[in-house]
Amino acid sequence: MENSAVLPAETVEEKGKKKALTIFGYDVRYFIIGMIIFSFFGFCAENAGRMVTKHIFDCRHQLLPFLFAYGIALLAVYILMGTPNELRFFNIRIFKKKSLKTKILSHIIYFAVIFAFIMIGEIAVGMIYEKCAGVILWDYSDIPTHITRYTSGITTLLYGGGVYALMAFAFEPMMRLISKMGTKAATVIDCTLGVAIVLDFIIMIVVTFATGSAPDYWSVAW
Fold first, then answer.
1. Which of 71, 80, 153, 207 qualifies as a cystine partner to 145, CB 3.0-4.6 A?
2. C-alpha distance from residue 208 to each of 59, 65, 74, 204 (Å)
3. What is the rounded distance in angstroms from the CA atom of residue 196 to the CA atom of residue 104?
4. Looking at residue 17, what is its pLDDT?
5. CA of 188: how far to CAs of 24, 30, 72, 97, in Å?
6. pTM (2 decimals)?
7. With left for phi above 0 and alpha for psi between -120 and 50, is residue 25 left, alpha or beta?
C-alpha cells in the first residue's frame, strides 16, 4: 500500500479544472463582457451623431440600449488584427521587432484597415437590408462625402477614429479591469444581459425581414 501515493490537493484541483476557452489570451467570458460594453458604446455613438445632425435620440430599432453589431465588430477586429500596439494577422505578428518606426506603422495600418472595414461593412449591410428586406435603415445622402447612401468619408473617419482610439488606448485597460470581476460574475452577466442583447438583435432582424419595416419602439425629437 505504500506505493499508492496520494496526489497533493493542488494537483487534484488542477486535474478537475477544465482549461478556460480563450480568445487570443482573454478568457471568452471576459471577452463577452467587452463585447457588451462595445455594444453600448455603439448605441451611444450612433445616437450622438443623430442628436447633432438630426436632433433625434431613439432606440435604434432595438429594445435595449446595446447594438450587438458593434460587439460582433470588436470580435472580428480583435481576432483579425489584435490591437494597434500588438498588430497581427490572426496569430501572425506583422512586425517581429519593435521600434518607433514599426510602432507608428502599426498604428497607421490599423487605422487604415479599420477605415476600410467600416466603409465596406456599412455598404454591405445597408445593401443587404435594402435588397432583401426592402428597408433603408440609414441614409447618408445629405452628407457631402457620401459614397452610396450607406457610408461617407466623414462618418467613416469619425467612427473609424473612435474604434481606433478605443482599441489603442482603452481596450487593454478595460479588459484588465473586467478580468478582476471573476469568472462567476462574468458568467452571470453573459448568460443574462448578454443573452438578452443577442435575442434583441435577432428579433430586430426577424421583424425587419418579415415585415419589411424595422421596429421603432421609442424616439425623442426636438
1. 153
2. 15, 18, 24, 6
3. 40
4. 60
5. 22, 11, 20, 41
6. 0.89
7. left
